[in-house]
Structures are given as C-alpha cells and as structure tokens.
Amino acid sequence: MTRRECIAAFTLAILSGLSCAGGPAGNFPFHDPCEGIDAVQHLHERNVPSRFRDLLPLAARWGRGNREDREMMEQNITREEIDCLRDFLHERRDALSKWVRSTPPGGRRSQEACAFKRMLQLYNDALDLRLRGTLR
Length: 136
Known about the structure:
globular
C-alpha cells in the first residue's frame, strides 16, 4: 500500500462514519494530562504543528482514548496497517513524542496532542506485538 493509498484509506474510514467516541482513559499511577480527553470528535489542524498536520487522519483513526477500543485495535491491526503507520511515524517518532509530552500553559493537553499521544502508544505497542510474532 502506498503512502497516498494509506492516507486515503484512513480518511475514507473517518468520512464514512467511523466512530471515534471514547470512554475512560484508564487508571494511571501518575497524573495524565490527557485524562478526561477521551473523545476524538474533530481534530483541528490549528492545534497541531504544521510538520505533523499530514498525520491528522492517522491520529483520528488510531488515537482514540478509550482503553478497550485501543486494545481491540491492537488485537486487530494488520501487518499492512502497522507498516503504513511505521512509514509515516518512524522518522518522526522522537519529534512527535517531544511535542505530545510538552505540557501547555494550564497543564491540559489539547485533544489533538492526546490523539497523537495515543496513536504513538498504539504504534509502539503494535511494534512490540510484531516483535513477539503475534501480529496477524
């Protein structure tokens, strides 16, 4: 799947009514600035650094905040999908991580930063699953 086809597939999934509603973010032993920001209703590009805006469709698809949804996505993600994520994220993973870890004034991250954070978590988890040979 080409990069263009990958983005087109995720954009189509979002436009065709993909549910992005989330639930509780889970119990963390530390304060999570994304706690309570679980629904990915609509991601605004103005809240995303310009160098990451091309990743908005991926963040909307893979950045849902509901722990059960993310676990189901991990179980069902295909090699083709993880390869697509890798193609888009691998080179920018450190820069993305730095951006999503930065805490803005007021201590709350934007919905967009939280979606990117969760997408990175899913990507890292999927890479771990792939290394263990359990990815379908």
